Description:
By secondary structure, this protein is of the alpha+beta class. The protein has helices spanning about 5-15, 50-60, 95-110, 115-135, 140-155, 200-215, 230-240, 255-260, 265-275, 280-295; strands at about 20-25, 30-35, 35-40, 65-70, 75-85, 110-115, 160-165, 170-175, 180-190, 220-225, 240-250.
Amino acid sequence: MLPRLTAEDYARFLALQGYRVRRTPSAFWFEANRWFFLAAPHHREYCLESEELRSLFRSWGCFGVRYAAPAESAQGKPSYQIVLDRRPYGLEQLSANVRSKVRRGLRRCDVRSANLADLEREGWELHLETLKRQNRDEAWTSDRWARFWRAARQTPGIEGWGAWVEGRLAAFLVTVTFEDAVEFLLSRSSTEERGAYPNNALIFAVAEEMLMRRKVPEITFGLESLEPVKPLDDFKFGMGFRARPIRQVVVFHPFLRFLLNRPALREMVRGWIARREKQHVYWRKAAGLLRFAEETESKQSLGGS
């Protein structure tokens, strides 16, 4: 049986990639964005006390943190996690349009588990094509790419899957098996082969494997993004995933919260970020963090705990 990762195992996987990782009594945290930490594993829900959050800023010198809380929590912004947890799962559970795409994909593609080293070697171009197609300017250097795959190979519980068209890799997926869920961690595909529907075939085949044969509790495809990504979410929903309600909590460093509680300064920061949103994904995520913090339904403003 495939090993199931604990939170500590996943933190080690992140550290092997070069992320800054820290630990508090309730969670591990990693620097997902520059000077901003995300709870890990991020699909889990956390109920954090004010003192634990304050300890983060006293010991790290970071700008803020982000984590998922239960839907019934008084903190955070109403949000969702993208999950697949309904059984049975099969073609009959998909719409006629999506079912047709999956069938065509399965006919055109050879879908199977894949060696991680093979995906590292063959998947770089698919990675670049996907980011370009999605208008994402994330700077994955070749060194970062190599660190990801090296860390994945050293972490039992991480698997690779691929869809090939006439011997060429058309799409790949990396999954992480946790104690309570399987995460679809990294998904990339070829622009040229999109007409063969490799993404539909691959996501369907792996989801069916996980839910129906391995009997995993659920599959997660991540939290609601900080950026507008409706087409990507719609694809996942079409494949049978759903939006499960949670709350996302964004907590700024107390000093930043003090400054941003000044309306004039907050408007200036919002305008400064808005002028840069189209230039780089970092600023789009910064805008999302500010929006999530401002919209939080917490007793204190701007994501206070």
